[in-house]
Amino acid sequence: MSITSPTSANDAILVADDIGVRFETNEGPVIAVDDVSFKVRPGEFLSVIGPSGCGKSTLFNVIGGLLSHHQGVVTVAGETISGPHKSIGMVFQEESTFPWRTVVDNVAFPLELIGMPKAKRIEKARHFIKMVGLDGFENRYPGELSGGMRQRVSLARTLASEPKILLMDEPFAALDEQTRLLLGDKVLQIQQELKQTTLLITHNITEAVQMSDRILVMTYRPGKVKRIVDIDLARPRTSEIVTSEPFGRYVAKIWADLREEASRGMKDEESQALHHQGPSS
Amino acid sequence: MTQDPAATLRIGPVGLLRVAIMLVLLTVWELLAHSGWLYRDVVPSLLAISRALLDLLSGRDYYFHLGVTAAEILAALGIGGFCGMIVGIALGANPFLSNAFESLLYYLGPTPKIIFFPIMIMWFGVGPESKVALGTLSCFFPVALSVAAGMRGIDRVLIRVGNSFRANSWQMVTKIYLPAMRHPIINGVRLGLGVALIGTLLAETKLSNKGIGFLIINAYSTFDMPRMYANLIVLFVLAIGANALVGRFGGLHTIKRL
Amino acid sequence: MSARGASVIPPNIGDYMSALLGVFSLVLFFLMIEALVQTGVINRFIIPAPSEVIGSFWRVIREENVLGRFLLTASECLTAGVMLTVFGIAGGVLMHRFKLLQQACETWVAAMASAPIVLMYPLFLVIFGRSAWTIIMMGFIAALPPVILKTIEGISSTRKVLVNVGRSFNLTATQQFWKILFPAALPTIFVGLRLGLIFALINIVGVEFLINFGGLGQLINELAERYDLAGTYAAICFVILVSIVFFMALEKAERWLRPVE
After folding, report:
1. C4 to chain A nearest CA, in Å?
2. How far is A5 from chain B (nearest CA, A)?
3. Is the complex ipTM higher than 0.90?
4. Same domain, B240 and B144
5. Which end is more exposed in chain C, N or C (fewer Cβ atoms within 10 Å of the end residue's Cβ)?
6. What is the Cα–Cα distance from A221 to B165, expressed in whole angstroms?
């Protein structure tokens, strides 16, 4: 099942149009993101990949509505984003489970906020806990779980709010490679089952190619869209695919682009450190 | 120290040492009491103190006074703690306000609040209200400062989670800020309890006809030293107990912090 | 997340503005009180006009020998402070040295920290009479627990690797203590001393007030008993000022004595 390029804006559920973000710092204005535009189709898995400093986390915050000080417009199903939108669910990079709530209370959190009655929200929460493979752990506290399990709780929590678009910022960055691959499988599985539109921010090429229908490669600061790559690998995919030849070719292609940007980034940081003459803050 | 009694009684060396220390102290005390070195009754015999203790706890009067003081302290903690929490949340959430006002609290905090008592009497009269007022003033500062620091110490990502789910302000405060701050809050309350206790009781010793503080100063003024010691002993036991209780209560709230 | 800030206002002006807000609010507050008293909304026998209070500052300083009283309170604090340093640190060291003692007594000391020791002042009055010693001893005893506890904490929490360095050089127990454990513990010990001094000051001024003897604390009590309302408020302001200055000086001293955090 190959994905062809979108034919019209009407097909897209998320449209980012000419996004630009500028920060005022002590060293003067910094353009984090510049002229970024793309569309996401319903049910699609799009990854945004780039070197450190390419502004991808900034983009994450813009789309999630947590950063309103920006140029350009983001629309979801026609509505403009001006703050956190109910159609967008966010999964953060850092540990974000509430340590004082049990797993089931964590996952039921978004349902609690909208006033769903207790019995119903517990039932729903259990459904999503099962989906991420944590059934049996409902009444444990996050402190009793491993890092990977906690990220699954965060994922279940976001899924419980049943967003049209799942927006994830390097959710597996803190995990080891093997856990990451297996969790990637799980996420793919869930995404296929729910036909969930997903936008994944990552710096990990393997992860991006493993999971995505399309990959958006960003340049180093100021972050622009360097290239959009269609990933034409058969679905359903599992982690075994990482050793296949087509997979390797995609990785090589993307790495060629990324490497250029990453080198630029490194040189830039070295020259900055040189000019500051001391440990940079 | 012989080994066998310890083994059979199952008291470890720590327990034994504690018992030994207590015995030594009590023996020294009793010797002083009977030696006549110090002015009569500054160190009353343990028997006299025990008798006074018994009298104190078996009479109905004591519990009336205890009730008065406890009510004053609870009221002070309630009002002062509540205000402290509100102010603490406001200051912790807003760096601008914090820069403007927090140093005020920080430097006013260590001032002995008892010096404000004459003013409290002017405003609230000589009854329990002035004691409550002083206790409130005392415990406001540690609670506000603890809560403000606690707000700033909240893991930022948890706030972003709340925002990403579009929680309104009330939900943010009750479901995220307060639970995330449970440790600083409990510590602030412990500190607040301690100073509210001191403030209220000192006010009672200064000017009152009710309450534990009154009983203490009353015993002093009639030079009934055994009774004063008895009062002090019970007071200390209760104060230490209350502090431990709050601490334990705070601990039960968390199962394994992350 | 990016380390770069996204501030719209340059940092410096923001700080000034908030400090300004603080000062401005205070001034506004006092002006309001002034207005309310002058127009009679607030009874001037319950709350005197701030202008009156400021006016009595000089009178109080001159007539009540504020300087002398300040020195008396300060000397009481100093005495208590010296006693605290000697006995508090010694106590902590002893308790660390004799583990059994620490295990037996540390919780007792911690419990004393939460007990209202200052309420024993009538007892101290009987023992030491209405003198400076009552005040000093109260300050000393009430402030002892934090010094002892922090001393123990400081010595116990010396990083294991430093202890091992000492052992690798075959230091005797005494050398180990004076050359490694104690210097490493100094920052924490200073935190304890600072806490102790603050407790001491609070208790000293408080007891001066209560037993109507001594320096600044007594001044407040006296003025209050004379119904010199403006004077009482002025004296309270003065005590607050002294406590603020004392506290700031302690912070500076601590920052000077503790090198890098």
Report:
1. 6
2. 30
3. no
4. yes
5. C
6. 30
